[in-house]
Each structure stands twice: as structure tokens, then as C-alpha cells.
Amino acid sequence: MDAKILIESFAEFARSKNVDRPTMIRILEDVFRAMIRKKFETDENFDVTINADKGDLEIFRIREIVDDNSEDIWDFDKISFTEARKIEPDFEIGEEVYEKIELEEFGRRAVQMARQTLIQRIKDLEKDILYTKYEEQVGEIVSAEVYQILGREILLIDSDGNELILPKGEQIPKDRFRKGDTVKAIVHRVDMNNGNPKIILSRTSPVFLERLFENEVPEVYDGLITIVKIVREPGERAKVAVESYDDRIDPVGACVGMKGSRIHAVVRELQNENIDVINFTENLDLYVTRALSPAKVSSITVDQERKRISVFLKPDQVSLAIGKGGYNIKLASRLVGYEIDVFRELNEYDDEDVDLSEFVDEIEGWIIEELKKTGLDTAKSVLALTKEDLTRRTELEEETIDEIFRILRQEFEQ
């Protein structure tokens, strides 16, 4: 393989990978200089000129002519007067000899190795370009096509044919994709695995929800409305705290849109995830009240030291505050940054009820605390639920729940 064929084939391959000309020339020169160092131990006195467009390569070895008896005669950049005269009869001591080195002088094996090295360098460069491209897009939405569905992840292909990964844990539980489907997700992170970029996507990240709002709500995209915080239970429920510094803009109304037109597009993309948009405020009591919506709060007590908030509600509001699967109270706690405990307000009809704390001799304290976390602070509030309700709301085992029911019922039978 001569230089012209080698360079032209490399240049064609490089162009197919969208490698720019200066980078292409730099890689060619690096590889040829590596060949020179292997054969001559150094490349300091060599000049390499490459014209990738024409496939031209010129390598010159530059040496200074010294007297045959000079002490420097064995230096890499020196040549004896006698040797120089063999190249050109009229050379004189002190002049420089430019000796052209043909590619064939490096040997067939070296040239073949150079060809493989050039291809590998482009592939490595392609990986670096891919890594940089997606590293700059972390937190941004991308669309890609499903091409393979595996047990623990879905493999997707972007418009340039690059492989992206959507792990099971980054999928919304209700997501169901088929080969050929187009999937929207954010670039969650980019890892390097054995020199290969691994691009991880996510549909469960709060950032994905934030980007969807930016796409659907121009005021959010333009910065007129700020998303202060987002908390999610992917596919189930999300709470979004928003604010605007322009009094003329209603941030909640703008995010929801006329008849819910804007938020509906977001909800559909998130597999009907229930999204609560609330006005952010520095007033903690008001913030907690909004966070627990749709429940109506009667009163609030804040324990700043323990970062806990006790919320008191009318009996018919407790289940609303807790929400299906306990998601409403969990998300409200995460949104405000405090642990929220829900308590029922007692009224004149609750005289016969008994506080759970009264059963501390028969029911272990941690079990009572577990019940209180879900807003169940009296015997009748527990007995009003079914075993299935308690199993869903708490982490208690069925045998424990049966025992709780037995003890509480026994109290009223007496």
C-alpha cells in the first residue's frame, strides 16, 4: 500500500465520521511520526508534510553535515561528510541534508499497522465526540427510537445511529414501549465504560418534568415563571412549586392553561401522572397548607428543631391529606422539607373515642408511631378502615394488623 492510497482511504473514512480537516491532518501526522520514532528512535529532525486532499505525503530527514572525525558524528541530527557526498556530490560541511524517506522504507508490516492505528484513532475520536455531545446535553430532553427491549433496560437509537440506554429504574412504571416507538426522556448522565460512552436516559427524574413544563409553558421557558421545586412519585403523583416575580402573571394558571390545555400534554407524556401545581411562598404554614391540597387544613404546629410539622384536619379531610397510597403526604413532606404528621381534630361526637397512646401497654410504640404517620391517632380512626387499607398505607404485616384490630375492638366491647 503506497502513501496515496493509505491517506485517501483514511481521509474518506474520516469524512464519513464527520471529522474536520485539521483534526484529520493532526491524526495522520501523529501516526506517521510514531512510525518514524519506531524506526529511527526520534522524530525531532524529521519534517512531515501531508496533503490529505491529494493523498500526498512527504517525509524528510534533516541532518547537519560534520567532518568525518567530528565527535558529534553519531548524533541523530548529524551526518558525516563522506555519507552526505554520497547523497549529493557538492555538499559542504555545515550544510543541512534533506533526505526524503519513502513510506516503503518502513516496511509492509509497519504500514499495515499504521492503517489500523489510523482507523482506531478515528473510532476513539468518534467516541470522544459522542461523549462530549451528550455530556453537554445532560438535563435536556432527547427523542430516540426503541430498537431493542431487554429485561433490565431499553436500548434506543438517536437520529445519528448512536445507542442510548433507558434503564428499568428510569422508566415510569406504566411505560410500555414497542420496537419502533419514539421515546422522550432527558439525558440523565454519561458514563465511560471501558472507553465506550454509555448514555443513560431518564423519564423519572424531576428534571424531565421541568423540561416538559418548559416545552408547554412559554412563561416558564422565558423565565417569567420559576419552578422552585419538583417532587415526584413517577407515574402516580407530582407536586410542582412555582412562583413569578411579575404580579400580572398567575404562575399556577399559566402552567395549567385554559381548561388544563397545557398541563394535559405533560400529564399524557407521564402516563397520566397526577400533577399538583402550587404557588411557592416563604410562609411555611401557608406552604404546607398548599402542599397538602386538596385537603383543607384546620391548624398547624411546627417543630423547627426536629424538622417536623403536626397538621390537624377534620376527620373527612384526613384521607385526602394522606392520598392514595400515601403519596400526597409523602410528596408534601418532601416539597416543604419537613416530616409531616397528620392528626384528626376531635369533635363532640368523638367523646367515646380513645387515643392510640392509651394502648401503649398492649401495642408496641413503633407500631403506634407507624399508624400516626398516616393520620390514624385514635382507635376509631383505625377501626374505620379495612385490613387492605392499612396494609396499603403502612408497612405493617397482616398478622400485626389483625392483632391491632383485636385489641382495639376489645376496648369498645368492654
Automatic annotation (TrEMBL):
It holds the Pfam family KH_NusA_1st. Keywords: Cytoplasm, RNA-binding, Transcription, Transcription antitermination, Transcription regulation, Transcription termination. It is found in: Cytoplasm. GO terms for molecular function: DNA-binding transcription factor activity; nucleotide binding; RNA binding. InterPro entries: DNA_repair_Rad51/TF_NusA_a-hlx, KH_dom-like_a/b, KH_NusA_2nd, KH_sf_prok-type, NA-bd_OB-fold, NusA_N_sf, S1_domain, TF_NusA. Residues 139-204 form the S1 motif domain. CDD domains: KH-II_NusA_rpt1, KH-II_NusA_rpt2, S1_NusA. GO terms for biological process: DNA-templated transcription termination; transcription antitermination. PANTHER family: TRANSCRIPTION TERMINATION FACTOR NUSA, TRANSCRIPTION TERMINATION_ANTITERMINATION PROTEIN NUSA. Monomer. Binds directly to the core enzyme of the DNA-dependent RNA polymerase and to nascent RNA. NCBIfam families: NusA (TIGR01953). This is Transcription termination/antitermination protein NusA. It comes from Algoriphagus boritolerans DSM 17298 = JCM 18970. The lineage of its organism: Bacteria, Pseudomonadati, Bacteroidota, Cytophagia, Cytophagales.
